[in-house]
## 1
Amino acid sequence: MLGIDIMLYQILVVIIAILAVLLLFGRYQNKKTSLQTFLLWAVLWIVLGIFTLVPESSSALANFLGIGRGLDLIIIFGLIGAFYLIFRVYLRIEKLDQDVSKLIRLIAIENEEKDENEK
Amino acid sequence: MVNKVNQSDFLNNGESTEGVFIVVPAYNEEKTVGEIIEEIAQRGYKVILVDDGSSDDTNKIAKSSKEKFPDRIFVYRHVINRGLGAALITGMTAALRKKAKYVVTFDADGQHDINDIEKVCKPLKDDVDVDVVIGARPFEDMPRSKNFANSVMNFLTRVFYKTKVKDSQSGLRAFKAATIPKIEIMSQGYDVSSEFIREIRKNNFKLKEVTITTIYTPETQAKGTNAIVGIKILFKMIINIFK
């Protein structure tokens, strides 16, 4: 009997998931996000929506993977996912940091050599 | 431009300064930078000053020093502060572009003795096999907190990079020009010192350590390896394992 025993949090999560997917789709259409990123996040949000609407589905998957409860599964995967993202962001920032240094180095050397040649 | 300074390429003891470039990274060192680079230039060395985005008058002072020694002092400016490691690489790259034979790194805060430049260069000139020289500060002379921090860093360098050195964090180093293109430095900040050790090992450079004097003043105390910098360096070393 879906619709009768639906809880407030389920409505909220589903609304947020739909908004997130729409936002992502907008960004994808405006070419601000790659197809890869769009699909990854869309799938994540859709899965979260399904888990929210049909909580038993997460339990079924958890049992299949040997994890006790559905909620545990979500939390475990959520944590792993979050750590992975932090690590990737860290590496990306470090790469950007090095790229900025290369640019600054180039500017410093070019400016000095320009000044030297003018003399 | 008239300058009445000694323009020869030889030191008083007859040692040649030809092809020796001194890389001085400076970040907000207006109090010491002018005196240091002028004194180095006076000895006949070429100076590559890298102003690492200083917000004080470091750049202005360096430029006026350059007017006194137009052929010996070269001033580079990072428009954004990028850290010690990035500044050193800029300086070393610039020195190579100016056809340096030997490149010496020298801190701008006044902690090194200019007489030690010759000391770290001599093994490179005298021994064809020596590639890199590090000027080791005697730990007994250090204030206790610095002594501890630097001992820990030596230990970590030994654990992570499997190299035993007397002073892994010293800012006074001398390189043969040919070694520099092979050195790959990833870090931007103070952990660059340990990375040099790693690169020396990785490339099988022959390293020689010479003892140098260190001048400890309140200014030279403020920067360098303290506990927080040490923890940051440790963190970076751990991260680097996973890359």
Note: Residues 1-53 of chain A form one domain.
## 2
Amino acid sequence: MMFDLFKRMARAPAFDAAGLGTELLARPIAPGCTLPSGATGVAVDRSGRTRRISAGGRMQLLDGENGWCFHPGPYGCDLAPFAAAPEIGLRLHFAVDSPDPRVSQQRFDLFLASEGAGDLSLAGFAANIEAALQRELAQGNLDLPPCTTLDEWNAFRAGFNQLLYTRFGVTVDDCVPVDLRPGRDFAALLRARAVHDADEPYIGAETAPAAAALEVAGAAVAAVPGRARFDPAREDARALRRLFLELPCLMCRVRQAALPSGQDLFRQQQALLQRLDLVCLAASTMPALSLAAPGQPLAASQQLRRARHSVQAAAALDEAWALLARFELAEDRGLEALFDDADRIVANLEHATGERKLASAGEEA
Amino acid sequence: MTAPVSEAVSEAMFCSLLADGSVVTVTATRRARGGRADIKCSAPGAPALAARMQEVARLARHTEARYDSRDQVVISMDRAPGAQERDWELAVVLADRAVRGLLPPAAVPQLALGWSDGWHHGRIDGHDAGNPPAGALLGGPQHLRHLGALSGQPDVSASVSSARAWFPLHSGGINDSLCWVEVSVYPLAAGEAPDDEAIAAPGLDSARQHAVRQALAGARHFDGEAAPRWRTTVRFGQDGLHGNSYELALVLADRLARGREFLPRGRIIASGCSGAWHAGQVEGVEGLAPKCALIAREASAGDRVLLPRAWEADLPPGLRDALRAKGASLACVERIGLI
């Protein structure tokens, strides 16, 4: 028996740390591995609670826990804040900061617990950041107008820093506008679109010149949005996991962040928190995707509808994190508009979770 | 803020033409949703048409950034177009947007004609009316190509990139108006030598064409564009320009079209010229007072107003605050490009 134990200790699996800190932010780690130097471990249990294991230690996982290993960085990436302006961008340098002792759970740990699936690559993470940034700019919550003045730039930076910290748990070291020109050529992108447009009416008939142009355009073709297959079961599970894990933390943060001064705002906040509580309850008692009633399977079209509503709810959740970032920066006078937005987002959450619960679309005019 | 609920209008009207030349009015109203469908449509005696209206409005909402499940929009037509007619589609889409405050409210119902097979991309494919009246909003390749073009923004799915910017046209008081300039660019084929016609401005006299080419060439040089990459077409909203205060708007529209400028949520409204576009400088122009008055009157939510730095000291007091109250923003610039 002793001999077995030693044998097991001896063949603790090696952890492949290649790319960690450069192309990879985090990677799942098997129990018993030694953390590489400079990297931190995160153990996530079944209900989403997380704890950190400091660098150089051994991943001692309890039953039912999953291990992650992340490198704090720093990392650098280029973002395009507007889809219609591909040649102008922001160069962002960020890091996963040392833990904030005032909160019980670090936001980045929550991100890993709720959204982590396999390796977390820098490119994938940057795409997430870019999507969040583009949405905030399109909604007018952040402003980056043409010929930005210094004051406007500083306001943008403050909002953007807070957004990244609140939504992803990373801190911005530096962020500057850059010309993405040598790497991203709009002319090539337009040519690729012309080829793409010409291709569209004909199914399967790829002409030789079109194929040649595709080769010339190279990377630009990838930017033409592909039609990835929507897998209802996977997307639904991901969205519901996010709602289940993140909504309680979000409510906790809302309670701490927004301390309204007046009686009216206080009532509004209480009402919002109550409604969020019910959304939380709805998310944690959500019926299975594939069942209309116990023992009765649900038609595939209705499963697709349900999955779309879960994804919508997750999108509203993203907006809620962005709104929380704005609450954390807000001064007293802008609060009414923020509460109105909060009302909209909570209504969207209620609507989406309500529709997700229904077994069939039962909507009247 | 995009459309805070409290301030938005609760009714919006647009008109369209039927094949027999009569006018149909599309009315959109908004009310609390109360568990009903997000869009309800009706047309007299034509339930199939109502279903198609709902489909069009729903598809067109796919390009919106902000989703609000709190309201129901009720859209109705006062007479039913024939089953083959489709010019009413644009009016329905615009009414649906205006009633939720995404478009500035208009005093009189505007005439809008257009149909599309790609509303979910925000695209407008064309219009059928033979000779539409002047001042109507027309959909189609020569007119309004996609919904974002209402505020001058380039289409993210088209292979020709075109963008608009507006400039104040001062012609003595009552006739002052905002005029647009549109720049469309298409990449030159590989190895194609750029000729003089690479920047075309149809309808302008040769002196002004030369000025337009000079300004664009200078501004592109400032961007560090070594070899010419674009075939360019410039169009103006009105003929009979004088002066050169359109230049800043022209240069900004060109930068938007080439994907090298941050996008405003609304329109760019700019006035300014330069003797040194190759250095990116912006210089002052004539007519500060009437132009500022015009801009203060015409600006709407999301617009970005850019004026020369030389004007900053003489701006009318309160202009900045008035614009901010409308949701627009103002900046005085001495050079274009990144800060």
Note: The mean pLDDT of chain B is 85.
